Task: structure prediction
Amino acid sequence: MTSPINLSAYPLSNAEKRGALLKDAKATLQRDGMVTLDDFMTTHAVAKTLHIAKPVFETDSFEHRREHNIYFQPKVDGVAPDHPALATLKTANRTLCADQLAATPLMKLYEDPAFVGFLADLMGKPALYTMDDPLARVNAMTYREGEALNWHFDRSEFTTTILLEAPESGGDFEYRPALRTAEDANYDGVAKLLKGEDRQVQSVTLKPGALNVFKGHNTAHRVTPPVGDTPRTIAVLSYYEAQGVMFTVEERIGFYGRA
Result:
């Protein structure tokens, strides 16, 4: 199998070109809290991944529908239950797990040592490792018309995604940089965001094949509902600073409906 990476644009094995690419990407990540590398995954690799995944989405995906607040926690210490920062939101999508994507170029990309090393350098980490969890290591999610990923903060320091399919319209990635810090939870600012009154919200429209690396722990973000017959399909690739990371049985059942 040929590389799923667009090596003509992103020659990760060429030290000089890799260094220049890394310098630019780190500067963008530092400035914006996210960096997007368009056409990172080849058109052929994206098409083959979708060819394998689409029938499975129709027959064997997990339909995930939930009501939640921006923290994905039923209670937040020190915050009244009726505080507008804890407003109820709705999220809906269909999910495939890594074991259902094993034959795709997406999995080859996930495990590519050059790619993992590039991510580690981008994030300023000594090393990053793929997950051992057979379900959680890579997920693909599809959002159809009327479905969306609502406002939330990520649990992890950063999130790595590849867009596989873009809708006819909608499906925009919206984010509010640095809405909170470790020292200031900024609940009133969160409430303002949820009311649609925050003018610092930014929006990005990704194209299929785009790699997006995003610091989502303190930056609130969501994806707007797609419009039209074509869904928004995105893959999430999970890496950790420790080896052997696994989800608990409870987490697998909650996210995927199976252990």
